[in-house]
Amino acid sequence: MAEKQILDTSKYPEVPDYDQDVNFENIDSAIATYIATRDDLDKERKSYNQYEARAKNYMARIEMFVKDKADELGMDSVRTPSGTAFRSVKISYRVGNWDEYWAWIKEHDYSQCVERRAAKNAVKEIHDETGEIPPGLEYYVEVGFDFRRPSK
Length: 152
Known about the structure:
By secondary structure, the chain is mainly α. 45% of the residues lie in helices and 5% in strands.
């Protein structure tokens, strides 16, 4: 069994643990620290995203290699000491023409063919115009603080 990997945080800037108090001399130093930490996250995220893109491309090429070999051998599943690869089929549907699709839904009364969720922007527009929230919806507001670097 493979050993559980633990995240190596030594390459990241020092960040206090969850249970450590956060204390600053003043608000300016808190804002500066927040922005610097956000910049560090952006840098690490970009680096990780580049690695992830290369790794996913590599894995897709390996998958193609195994699929080609399985096709040659007429197999749907290949078991090896390193693991098992097996053929899977993923089906999805994408709307190419909403007007045609919506007409078909209405004509056949197939409302189950549409996801059930509120369209946030459309509901916000109605709420802003009328001051009312459509029946059956719950309205939530989350207030936080955003941080911006100083203007130059």
